[in-house]
Amino acid sequence: MPEESETKARKPRADSLRNRELLLTAAKAAFTETSAEAPLEDIARRAGVGIGTLYRHFPTREALIAAVYAREIQQLAASADSLLAQRSAGEALGAWLDLLIDYMATKRVVAPALRADPGEGSKLYADSGATILSTLQRLTDAAHAAGDIREDIGFEDILRMMSGLSVGYDQPGWDTGARRLLSVMMAGLGAR
Predict the structure, then answer these.
(1) How many angstroms from the chain centroid is the CA of residue 10?
(2) Are residues 74 and 46 in the same domain?
(3) Which key words are in the record (predicted)?
(4) Which residues neighbour 23 within 8 Å (Cβ) at sequence distance 6 or greater?
(5) Burial 50-64 (b: 16+ CB within 10 A, else e)
(6) How far is CA 181 from the centre of its chain?
(7) Within a domain: residue 7?
């Protein structure tokens, strides 16, 4: 009979978790600055680890790209709770939409590689929309309930406005203009 310790899954070591986070942060920066084809050796060097450590965590480039994207989605969804705890619902919605612009800037770089990945990447890319939409719906509902945004503006309206802001997201410098338009949008959404 196996011992109890053998049947339980071993938790990752703290240094392993730290190295994984360092690699994901370095990969996001490298992908954003260059492309999803950034040299893996450069990513490992930025993270302060060896290339072997990178490959232990992410055996392929596709696995690294998918992990960067999954972390972006996870952080974006989780940020809604902390924003709602720290700010009014209307301010939380605006701050989250600003984070959505950051996410879209990352997505611009990694989306082609994710869509080309016949495995985990393409499924992750396809499934991410549901997470984003449900988070946006929750923030919009909270802003309505608090009276922070106009009653006649619904979730679909905000979604249409954000779709308009996303036009050209694959162009350099898009995020600056999108943030400028987001501030106009949020001013217009204010409760009367």
Answers:
(1) 28
(2) no
(3) DNA-binding, Transcription, Transcription regulation
(4) 43, 44, 47, 49, 53, 54, 57, 58, 64
(5) eeebbeebbeebbbb
(6) 20
(7) no
Alpha-carbon gap, residue 192 to 188, rounded angstroms? 9
Structure tokens at 19: 């190295």
CA-based end-to-end distance of the chain = 69
Residues 111-153 have pLDDT tens digits of 888 888 777 777 887 888 899 999 999 999 999 999 999 999 9
Q: pLDDT by residue (tens digit) across 44-102?
A: 999 999 999 999 999 999 999 999 999 999 999 999 999 999 999 999 999 999 999 98
**Residue pointed to by tokens 């994984």:** 20
Give the CATH number of the domain where residue 85 resides: 1.10.357.10
| Residue-level pLDDT at 177 | 93
The C-alpha atoms of residue 99 and residue 60 are separated, in whole angstroms, by: 28
If one counts every other C-beta atom within 10 angstroms of the C-beta of residue 84, the result is 20
The verdict on 18 and 82 lying in the same domain is no
* CA atoms of 170 and 142, how far apart (whole Å): 31
Q: What is the pLDDT of residues 16-39, one digit of tens each?
A: 899 999 999 999 999 988 888 999
Distances (CA, A) of 191 to 92, 98, 131, 138: 15, 20, 27, 18
3-state secondary structure 25-86: HHHHHHHHHCCCCCCHHHHHHHHCCCHHHHHHHCCCHHHHHHHHHHHHHHHHHHHHHHHHHH
For the chain, the domain total comes to 2
